[in-house]
Amino acid sequence: MRLRLFPQEPAFFDLFNKSAENAVEGAKLYLGMLDNYDDPRTSAKRIREREHRGDELTHEIIRNLNTTFVTPLDREDIHALATGLDDIMDFIEAAADMFILHGIEKPTMLVREQALILVRICEAVSDGVRNLRKFKDLERYWVEINSIENEGDQVYRRAVAELFKGDTGAIEVLKWKEIYEHTEAAVDAAEKVANILESIVLKHA
Fold first, then answer.
1. How confident is the model at residue 2 (pLDDT cuts 50, 70, 90)?
2. Domain ranges of the chain
3. Which of 1, 32, 139, 144 has its CA 20 to 30 A from that of 43?
4. 35, 96 contact by CB (below 8 A)
5. How many CB atoms lie within 10 A of CB 21?
6. Element (H or E) spanning 111, and its range?
7. Residue 9 has what pLDDT?
8. What is the phi-psi region of residue 71: left when phi exceeds 0, alpha when psi lies from -120 to 50, beta otherwise?
9. Within 13 Å, how many C-alpha atoms sit on residue 181's CB side?
10. Of 194, 147, 195, 186, nearest to 47 (Cα)?
11. pTM to 2 decimals?
């Protein structure tokens, strides 16, 4: 029988995976809300539950970080990755909440296009996080994520430009600009996670 001199290392990678998968579920719920807008309040509530779940996972990672002597990654990288993944879900929840707060009657095609991009980039982030423990062959993930984020930028700029065309009232412009900005912020947060992954891998190259 082998005695353990130190407690078993907390499963940081497993927690990262759960947090990334939670963001994917949040993005899919957001897209689902836009595709089936019959009951946006219920959809937003489900997204809020995902956001709370993300907070729980982040807190668990930070608790483990504060109580673990030897960690598999640098402490600042663990903290950055945990909070970066949490930021994605925070922005998704904020975007969904804007629909309720602003009393939006129906989504635009452009915000749905943003949501499709958001699902894709979250899935790419989740794939990258799942392979992080290998510390190799991750370049394709951050290249893909950067490419998707560029698509997101184009859609965001097009969406904002459309707001200032035609006869859209000033209040409606402000409402939709805020929704587009929060959705774009979620996409940008996913790219930030990719940058964190790249930094971690380069340290272990």
1. very low
2. 12-203
3. 144
4. no
5. 18
6. helix 109-130
7. 53
8. beta
9. 8
10. 186
11. 0.92
